[in-house]
Amino acid sequence: MDKVALFILLLGGLNWGSVGLFRFDFVAWAFGGAGSIISRIVYILVALSAVWCFSLFFRRNEIIDTERGGARYD
To answer: Read out DSSP for 41-57?
Structure first.
């Protein structure tokens, strides 16, 4: 879930970057305007991803490496 949220947040950040630099909104362009229901759903998903990623600041740092012997560091 973390990787999905980070990916969506990355795409949202790139979209906002294109709005800031070029005044071009990829989401609005792709889905028929900023007010269309699909665009609004995408914007809501980006916002929910940001809320989810905010929780990463408050988690314990854990590294679980299953490919290299399953070592766990706390």
So the answer is: HHHHHHHHHHHHHHGGG
CB 62 within 8 A of CB 73: yes
pTM over 0.90: no
Please give the helix or strand (H or E) that residue 38 lies within, else none. helix 37-54
What is the enclosing helix (H) or strand (E) of 64? strand 63-65
d(CA 23, CA 2): 30
Other Cβ atoms less than 10 A from the Cβ of 31: the count is 16
pLDDT tens per residue, range 32-45: 999 999 999 999 99
For the chain, how many residues are written? 74
Asked whether the CA dihedral 32, 54, 13, 65 is positive or negative, the reply is negative
Element (DSSP H or E) covering residue 35: none
